[in-house]
Design goal:
CATH topology of the largest domain: Rossmann fold
Oligomer: single chain
Distance between the termini: 73 Å
Number of strands: 16
Number of domains: 2
Helix content: 40-55%
């Protein structure tokens, strides 16, 4: 579609723009760090004329990042990074109110999803901004002719960084990419507090189940798993953790959670959430053991963590929707199992995703990371990088200031002591 102002895109309904504009403004008031960056970017124009193709979850928080990039002078095109994560009113507002070409429709099929990524790549980007590495992957597989244009990229997610490091290890990554996810002010807060709250929020919204007293299984005890387990525990659930990493398993145990193999946990689970970034974490052997009424969901980036084909094979009685974002699968022995959000990331599919206050830091990393990569790309090899600590620290400082929190600083004596080796017992 093309709007009367000539902005192209593909969204559900442009008439939704007023509601989207209001919700974008609501998120903005809880994103003070990004606002400060936007004000500087508007003055300095560090991304002036740079073509950016961004494949991100199209939410109110992402809209504020997009507005910040445009304020910096970037020529931005945005597409969705997941078929179910788009907020349609936000996508409409980005086109109508901000003049940003946007290709995103909640519930789009796979063909449309990749058509939208192709449209973003047609922009011939000089910089990529990814949430899951689908944009960079398609660029390397299908549009290699565009790669000479690309100066650098950024990546938001754990899953995307895993894919990028695989590309780097195989020697196929063709330009430097900043792993925004590896910044302390991203993964320590976004992954833990953002994923934790939004995942539990989505499960409650979709099911209206009381979590207190239920067996709540968390597959994976990385930062996202820690957050989900903590929030479920806070709601009164009996939390069980499954892990393949012995160090994380010990950590979960010492945090007060039961730890066991998934084959055992599946038999007693009321709710299971996967947050591993791996494939078939809930496989046929586990799905076959689920009790009647079990709810299963995924909060990892891709819908690979639950083996849906195996679930369909077990459900000889068929499957049907019983509530928004809930599909009931009927086993031959009469058991019913309930899959949330088609196995896609439940926190964005069945709820609104992370709160704006935590995305404030994540998208501050994206914005400053884009500026850093553009300034330094000529000195960087085609591999995965982490944002410099001084940028990470500055984001944390700005966030504390916005929250009205002050902290101590080292005295000259303390700095000297920490940099010396002579002192002893």
């Amino acid at each position: 579609m093309t709007t009367p102002t000539g902005i192209t895109g593909d969204v559900k309904d442009l008439s939704l723009a007023p509601r989207g504009k209001a919700r974008i403004a609501w998120a903005a008031k809880d994103m003070p760090v990004l606002r400060l960056i936007r004000e500087r970017f508007a003055r300095e124009q560090p991304l002036k004329g740079i073509r950016i193709s961004a494949c991100l979850h199209v939410t109110t928080e992402t809209a504020n990042l997009a507005i910040t990039l445009k304020a910096a002078g970037a020529d931005l095109v945005l597409c969705a990074s997941n078929p179910l994560s788009t907020q349609d009113d936000v996508a409409a507002s980005l086109i109508v109110d901000e003049g940003i070409p946007t290709y995103a429709i909640k519930g789009e099929d796979e063909q449309t999803y990749y058509k939208h990524i192709a449209a973003a790549l047609d922009h011939a980007p000089q910089m990529t901004m990814d949430d899951g590495c689908d944009l960079v992957s398609q660029l390397h597989k299908e549009r290699q002719d565009l790669i000479p244009n690309v100066i650098a990229g950024t990546e938001e997610t754990t899953t995307g960084v895993i894919r990028l490091r695989s590309m780097q290890g195989q020697g196929v990554l063709r330009f430097p990419v900043l792993a925004v996810n590896d910044s302390d002010t991203k993964h320590l807060f976004d992954n833990r507090y953002g994923t934790g709250q939004s995942t539990v929020d989505a499960i409650i919204r979709a099911t209206n189940l009381l979590l207190a007293g239920r067996n709540f299984v968390v597959a994976g005890y990385g930062w996202c798993g820690k957050g989900v387990a903590s929030r479920a525990k806070g709601m009164g659930a009996n939390v069980i953790v499954t892990e393949v990493n012995p160090v994380r398993a010990i950590e979960a145990l010492m945090d007060g959670f039961r730890v066991m193999p998934m084959a055992e946990a599946a038999e007693i689970a009321d709710i299971i959430v996967t947050v591993t970034g791996d494939i078939n974490v809930l496989n046929s052997e586990h799905l076959s053991r689920l009790k009647d009424g079990a709810v299963i969901a995924n909060s990892g980036h891709f819908n690979d963590e639950i083996n849906i084909a195996a679930l369909e094979a077990l459900a000889t009685g068929g499957h049907q929707p019983v509530r928004d974002f809930i599909e009931e699968y009927a086993y031959s022995d009469g058991r019913k199992v309930y899959l949330l959000a088609d196995g896609r990331l439940v926190n964005l599919s069945a709820a609104d995703g992370h709160p704006a206050s935590v995305m404030d830091m994540s998208f501050a990393n994206q914005a400053l990371g884009a500026e850093y990569m553009l300034k330094n790309a000529g000195q960087l090899a085609p591999q995965v990088y982490t944002i410099p600590q001084e940028i990470d620290q500055e984001i944390a400082r700005l966030k504390l200031a916005a929250m009205g929190v002050r902290i101590d600083t080292l005295t000259p004596e303390q700095e000297e002591y920490l940099n010396a080796w002579e002192s002893g017992t």
